[in-house]
TrEMBL record:
<dbReference type="GO" id="GO:0016811">
    <property type="term" value="F:hydrolase activity, acting on carbon-nitrogen (but not peptide) bonds, in linear amides"/>
</dbReference>
<dbReference type="InterPro" id="IPR003737">
    <property type="entry name" value="GlcNAc_PI_deacetylase-related"/>
</dbReference>
<dbReference type="InterPro" id="IPR024078">
    <property type="entry name" value="LmbE-like_dom_sf"/>
</dbReference>
<dbReference type="GO" id="GO:0016137">
    <property type="term" value="P:glycoside metabolic process"/>
</dbReference>
<keyword id="KW-0862">Zinc</keyword>
<protein>
    <submittedName>
        <fullName>LmbE family protein</fullName>
    </submittedName>
</protein>
<dbReference type="Pfam" id="PF02585">
    <property type="entry name" value="PIG-L"/>
</dbReference>
Length: 239
């Protein structure tokens, strides 16, 4: 970890944010997304699952569509119009070729300059041990970026009319090796609104539900001492 955080690169126009579940992107990245869309950049979301196993006591058949709707509502709060779901089963996502292929397919179709993914390490920057789905999707996203740029990997994608695409940057959220950050001074409230859009999910957490505003402000302030005192969302930049 560096002593100071550098400003996140600005020389890009389109981004694809990849996560395992609805609400994953709202724990910080949504505030950065709001800053990007406010600056005129185009951001799209890709969710590997529909989060159907995320609310205890609510059948997955009912929960999945509900959480998809909440994700779209949360995305709208930060200027994201396109939200796509791959439909993998929540809680049992496996890293492997099918997931890499599906992510590479979306990258080739969306052609983003920047791909944002979750940190695949077992121990994220916020501590604890991260969920298996998060780790599998984070690693598959990193590999999928590389796969998308190689015409000889998943050759069937070319046959589908999807030529190789090389993203300029890959950024990992919640990484202990973060060295860049996005100033969210003016967009933190939008990020808070984005997570609060997941109303039924948060209600389903019961006594474990966080104080959303306090939590997200706390996360942003954690990066402030390394970023000139400004609240920020930090990322590890891979390329």
């Amino acid at each position: 970890m560096t002593d100071t955080l550098e400003p996140f690169p600005d020389d890009w126009q389109t981004a694809l944010c990849i996560a395992a579940h609805p609400d994953d992107l709202e724990y910080g990245t949504a505030s950065a997304v709001a800053a990007w869309t406010r600056a005129g950049k185009t951001v799209t979301y890709l969710l590997v699952t529909s989060g159907e196993a995320g609310i205890d006591g609510l059948d997955p058949a009912e929960c999945g569509p509900l959480r998809e709707a909440e994700e779209r509502a949360g995305a709208a709060e930060v200027g994201v119009e396109s939200v796509e779901f791959l439909g993998y089963p929540d809680g049992v996502v496996e890293y492997g070729l099918p997931l890499r292929r599906d992510i590479a397919r979306v990258i080739r179709r969306r052609r983003p300059d920047l791909v944002v993914a979750s940190n695949p390490d077992p121990r994220p920057a916020w501590g604890g041990i991260d969920y298996a789905d998060h780790r599998a999707v984070g690693l598959a996203a990193v590999d999928g970026v590389r796969d998308a740029g190689n015409r000889w990997v998943f050759r069937e994608l070319v046959d589908e009319g999807l030529p190789p695409w090389k993203a300029r940057y890959t950024a990992l959220a919640a990484s202990p090796r973060a060295a860049h950050a996005v100033d969210v001074t003016d967009t933190l409230e939008s990020g808070i609104a984005s997570l609060n859009a997941h109303r039924r999910y948060l209600e389903g957490l019961g006594d474990d539900a966080p104080d959303v505003a306090q939590m997200l402000r706390g996360f942003a302030e954690m990066s402030a001492p390394r970023f000139g005192g400004r609240p920020a969302v930090a990322y590890e930049l891979l390329a």
